[in-house]
Amino acid sequence: MAKATRQRGFEYFGVADHSKSAHYAGGLSVEQIAQQHREADRLNKRFGKDFRILKGIESDILADGSLDYDDDVLERFDFVVASIHGRFKLDRKAQTQRLLRAISDPHTTIIGHMTGRQLQRRPSYEIDVEKVLRACAKHDVVVEINAHPWRLDLDWRWHQAALEFGCMLSINPDAHSIPELDHMHWGVLMARKGGVSADRVLNAMTLAEITRYFRQKRCSLARAA
């Protein structure tokens, strides 16, 4: 996946496999995380300064809003995407509070596919989107524009509100195979439709800029601890 990303002209590949709660999707155990990070370090030495694998995880947001790894595990990553993958039928207040707690976790970098919709498959779960976006802006948590054609979430009609509240966004392909890396095309189209400029997109940053961004985020985390 990293080599294919590089061949497409990108400067970095943010790997974000499913976490341990997503056993149905091969979610990573703590031991597998350590193994993956060793492999990423090995490949980064080979790639040199012009390309880098960024170490991430898509950590499940549990029913109470906590993330499904301990803090000492989450601290090992360059970035953490926090996402809901179950308990979709909680009421609007409970589901919103669930997201708000995850957003307030200092380890959370990005909120993934915020409303959980799958086009022509599953409706969004009930949340107060405005309240969630305001919390993302307050806690400096990036809002994902999920580029998978089944998701396209956050919907483009919310993009201007996210920008007005002060959110950064990230266009992520949700790729589970090499061909799916090209989902980026759909995410870019949705961001353009929503009026999002490149300066408000996390992964429009250069390699130097995004590594600095993640480093500052980790420094803030260390100060908070």
Structural commentary:
This protein is an alpha/beta fold and 225 residues long. The chain has a single domain (2-224), classed as Alpha-Beta Barrel (TIM Barrel). It contains 8 helices and 6 strands. The chain has helices at 2-7, 30-47, 71-74, 92-104, 129-138, 159-165, 184-193, 207-224, and strands at 12-18, 52-60, 79-83, 110-111, 142-146, 169-172. The protein has a 6-stranded parallel beta sheet with strand order 1-2-3-4-5-6. Helix 4 (92-104) packs parallel to helix 5 (129-138). The model has no long low-confidence stretch (mean pLDDT 96).
Distinctive features:
225 residues; alpha/beta; TIM Barrel; 6-stranded parallel sheet; 8 helices; 6 strands; PolX_PHP; Pol/histidinol_Pase-like; PHP_phosphatase; Histidinol phosphatase-like PHP family hydrolase
List the helices and strands and how they pair.
Elements: H1 2-7, E1 12-18, H2 30-47, E2 52-60, H3 71-74, E3 79-83, H4 92-104, E4 110-111, H5 129-138, E5 142-146, H6 159-165, E6 169-172, H7 184-193, H8 207-224
Helix pairs in contact: 4-5
